[in-house]
Amino acid sequence: MAEKFVAKADELKDGDRRIIFDGDNEVGVFRHGDQYYAYSNFCLHQGGPACEGLTIARVEERLNPDKTSRGLYFSGSDMNFVCPWHGYEYDMKTGECISDRRLKLRSYKVVQRGDEVYVVT
Ligand code: FES
Predict the structure, then answer these.
(1) How much is the pTM?
(2) What is the CA(3)–ligand 1 centre distance, in A?
(3) Measured from the CA of 86, which atom of ligand 1 is nearest?
(4) 55 Cβ contact list (under 8 Å, min separation 6)
(5) Tell me, what DSSP letter sits at residue 95?
(6) Residue of the nearest CA to atom 3 in ligand 1?
(7) pLDDT by residue (tens digit) across 87-121?
(8) How far is CA 33 from the centre of its chain?
(9) Cβ(67)–Cβ(78) below 8 Å
(10) Of 55, 93, 89, 59, which is closest to residue 74 (Cα–Cα)?
């Protein structure tokens, strides 16, 4: 395993991302809050650039005690990212496909060494 430089920590703000190239491999690295997440940039649908599309707050349905809907709301904490080719949506915390959680992007460990961020490929 090798560590590939991503960015200086202070260059990677909340909501930022980087695409890291490692030979033929591509890894998308996201910063959300004070956490880093990294996934294969090859979409499980048809190989599109899964990590390069929109990032969007997860849509949640809130229920009344009798289980009737109170409506749909954007999550205040959970984010998804959307493949720009056909819209497969992935959970930023797990890499799981929202429409079928059995599908999951390969994940990578992200480490911070001093003021530099690396992804372990
Ligand atoms: S290739 Fe990503 S949604 Fe189709």
Answers:
(1) 0.92
(2) 28
(3) 3
(4) 15, 17, 30, 79, 80, 81, 82, 92
(5) -
(6) 86
(7) 999 999 999 999 999 999 999 999 999 999 999 99
(8) 12
(9) no
(10) 59
